[in-house]
Amino acid sequence: MGSAGKTQNEYLNASKKYLVLIFCLTLITVLLRKFTVYSSGIHIVLLLVGLIILGRAGWATAREYRFNLLQIGIFGFILSFGSHWSLLFFHGPGEILNLFVINSIINVVIVTASGYAARRIKKI
């Protein structure tokens, strides 16, 4: 048994495509920041794409996988690992722990909020 009534395999099945998407988006961000001009416009577009991915992940987890809100929160925490690796490229050791916690909280809130919306809004 995994956590909150779901097995590790169930979390893995629900998260694998979203983890890949978040990892790729983060990789694009890292490459753009390291090797090109990284404008605020590019930053906003990538941020919005990331928010859409997280929102869709929470929605799908509630609708397709029938996760409850606690399970969706755990799922959001798992998804945060798709971007944590990039902290090493841009931040010092003193900042990484704080940013890890902040990034994780933001992911959990967004994914859980969209999962909550998916559970509350009637299917059309």
Features:
single chain; 124 residues; mainly alpha; 5 helices; 81% helix; 0% strand; globular
Topology record:
Blueprint: H1 8-35, H2 40-63, H3 69-84, H4 87-90, H5 93-120
Low-confidence stretches: none
The level of helicity is: over 70%
Radius of gyration (Å)? 15 Å
Shape: globular
Structural class: mainly alpha
Average pLDDT confidence is 90
How far from one another are the termini? 34 Å
> How many individual helices?
5
Biggest sheet, in brief? none
Percent strand equals under 5%
User: Count the strands?
Assistant: 0
Order of helices and strands: HHHHH
Task: Please tell me the total number of domains.
Answer: 1
Structure description:
The chain is mostly helical and 124 residues long. The protein has one domain (8-120). 81% of the residues lie in helices and 0% in strands. It has 5 helices and no strands. The protein has helices spanning 8-35, 40-63, 69-84, 87-90, 93-120. Helix 1 (8-35) runs parallel beside helix 3 (69-84), helix 2 packs across helix 5 (93-120) and helix 3 (69-84) runs antiparallel to helix 5 (93-120). The radius of gyration is 15 Å and the shape is globular. The model has no long low-confidence stretch (mean pLDDT 90).
